[in-house]
Amino acid sequence: MDEDAEFEYDQHKFTSKAAARRFLEIMHVSILSERHVNLKVGEFDDFRLELERRKWHRVLGNLPNEVDEVLVKEFYANAYNSDGSLPCQAKVWGKMIKFNRKALNTFLRTPIFPADRNTPYGDFLIEDKDLEAIVARLCILGESYVIGVSRTPVRILRKHLNSLAHIWSVFSYNNISPNTHTSDINLERSYLIFAIMTKIENDIGVVISQEIALIASNATKLGFPALITALCKAKGVVSNTPIFLRLQSPINSRFISKHCINPAVDHVPAPRPVPRPRPPNVPRASSSEATSQAAMSKMFARQEDIWDSKQAVRRGTRCLMDNLHKLSLAVPNTPDDYLMTGAQFDECISWPRGRPKSQWGGVEEVPPDDDA
């Protein structure tokens, strides 16, 4: 009897016997979850601001924190084409889940580029590459690509990446082009990270659509599980599978400081504290008048400080003279007028009364206390 005729499968879950068999084949394949990006203003802004400029913070870096492992594997099983062609949609529990460029960009709320021409990133990929420029942007000083047996560049070691390139590599490994081999970046990933860091525009829907199709065809690590779970639920797929998997640890300030900062050289500024809001400015006179008044106020304030310090020195000297005179009286055979008293010191070395006044400040000096 034909083996296929004996093979029974759930037609509500799988579109064909081939899809059901594919599901059994990938049941042992691991899931590679995405990461959230949780950064505040002032925390690694070189990374955060570019993420926001590309609109990747809206959904791609902020996916729901749940992964339905069985549903994800049913999705990949139904997306598999036995003829080797790359899929762009999969039917899951009777619902058609599209993952072409337009569907993904719509769901991710990212820009949709015209389909009839290349994006700047597409043009960049077919151009001759300036590898020295890529190295200068991605690597720490003095490091470069590892050269392969054919004497061509093949990869950059993780320890040779600068901090910003390292952060982008982590994001790409989980949210753009899933891969568990993170000890280095290959040639293609170095192009992707260079394009991101130099603001070359790319269609993220195209990139992720191709990645999902390749995963479905090759049964490698099953990436984008949170995205696929969210796509299925958005189409009304209701699964009764318990949720046990979650996203990986988020890319936040603590994660970056621990895992992404290159100790050899730090090209990413440390997180800066958020500045406290300043109080509203009080209306002042015209700018020239206000500037003049401010300058004069500073000058007279400095004179006041000098005046006060000199007064303090004089009071100390007067007190010292009094004490020395009293001590001299206790020394035998010492004339009473051997040392001056404080009062005699004031008479001998007079201190001017009052101090200058001005429209910007200045107060009358308080005369020294004779009992001081």
UniProtKB/TrEMBL annotation:
InterPro entries: Transposase_32_dom. Residues 270-282 have a biased composition (Pro residues). This is Putative plant transposon protein domain-containing protein. Residues 267-295, 353-372 are annotated as: Disordered. Residues 286-295 have a biased composition (Polar residues). Residues 52-237 form the Putative plant transposon protein domain. It comes from the Eukaryota.
